[in-house]
Design brief:
Blueprint lengths: L5 H17 L6 H11 L6 H10 L1 H11 L1 H4 L2 E5 L6 E5 L1 H32 L2 H21 L15 H11 L9 H11 L4 H27 L5 H29 L5 H20 L1
Antiparallel strand pairs: 1-2
Helix pairs in contact: 1-2, 1-11, 3-10, 4-10, 4-11, 6-8, 6-10, 7-9, 7-12, 8-9, 9-10
């Protein structure tokens, strides 16, 4: 890509909006971006698009860091009463939380390193995306119905142990198939093992930080570091838009799950899958 036209910029902005909304709602950001590109193609090489669709997620990651900074930053400051000097200290509870996040990242990191290209080549199709949207949409509705009156044993992040973190990480592996949704797979897994909706959503946000950083780095390494100025601009624009939209999406989801369940997202996924299949049939 040697230059960006106005149409290119508009498409990049739309992709950034899609990423910012769908990365945190359990509806599959990658699936939505691949489908958008299927019907409104981005004029770039396939190698660049494969990298671009992942790397703009860094903007969404930055939104999580911004939104939850006080809960995820492990360093604190306090003033000594005897000397009056300010000293830095580590917050033990946050360090433990990050240790759990690291444990949860291991399964998807292993699978991603081994099978990322193989999965992308075979499952990045509209039909697969539609199937995964419908399958996990039904899963959301069923899980919410079956576990509707179940007591949530893990109603805060502090109560989620290392075993539960690993189990959620194993569910995250399912999201390597486009259309599944990383947040969707981890939230479903968390709900099944007894995590509350709010804690499940928050844990999913934190888990995204190292997971998506690793995935982005992997894609950049595979693409190479020989970017044109237009390609750099495209990535930066996409990330900036994804960041701004993600802040609103995160706030919406955290407020939403305090009062509602995830069934509506299941219905949306099934409806979208039906639309995709219909369009494929018509075409």
């Amino acid at each position: 890509m040697d230059s960006l036209t106005l149409i290119d910029v508009l498409i990049i902005i739309l992709i950034g909006i899609i990423e910012g909304i769908t990365e945190w709602l359990p509806v599959s950001s990658t699936g939505h971006m691949l489908l958008f590109d299927e019907f409104v193609p981005f004029a770039a090489s396939e190698d660049f698009k494969e990298m671009f669709f992942v790397v703009i997620q860094l903007g969404a990651i930055l939104a999580v860091v911004t939104f939850f900074f006080g809960k995820i930053f492990p360093f604190g400051k306090e003033k000594s009463e005897s000397t009056g000097k300010t000293k830095i200290y580590l917050k033990k509870d946050i360090l433990i939380m990050w240790a759990k996040i690291v444990v949860a990242c291991v399964p998807s990191a292993v699978v991603g390193l081994i099978a990322d290209d193989w999965i992308e080549e075979r499952f990045g199709t509209p039909l697969t995306i539609a199937a995964m949207l419908a399958l996990y949409g039904a899963a959301f509705i069923i899980v919410e119905k079956v576990f509707e009156n179940r007591t949530r044993k893990y109603d805060s992040l502090g109560k989620i142990g290392f075993v539960q973190a690993l189990l959620i990480g194993l569910f995250q592996v399912l999201s390597v198939v486009p259309g599944t949704s990383r947040s969707g797979a981890t939230i479903i897994g968390a709900l099944i093992i007894g995590v509350s909706r709010t804690a499940a959503a928050e844990f999913t946000f934190y888990l995204a930080i190292p997971t998506m950083l690793g995935a982005s780095l992997l894609k950049i390494v595979k693409f190479g570091f020989d970017f044109t100025s237009a390609e750099v601009a495209a990535v930066l624009i996409g990330m900036a838009v994804a960041y701004a939209v993600s802040l609103a999406a995160i706030r919406f989801l955290m407020d939403y799950v305090r009062r509602h369940d995830f069934s509506v997202f299941g219905v949306y996924r099934i409806a979208l899958a039906a639309v995709i299949v219909a369009v494929m049939f018509i075409r």
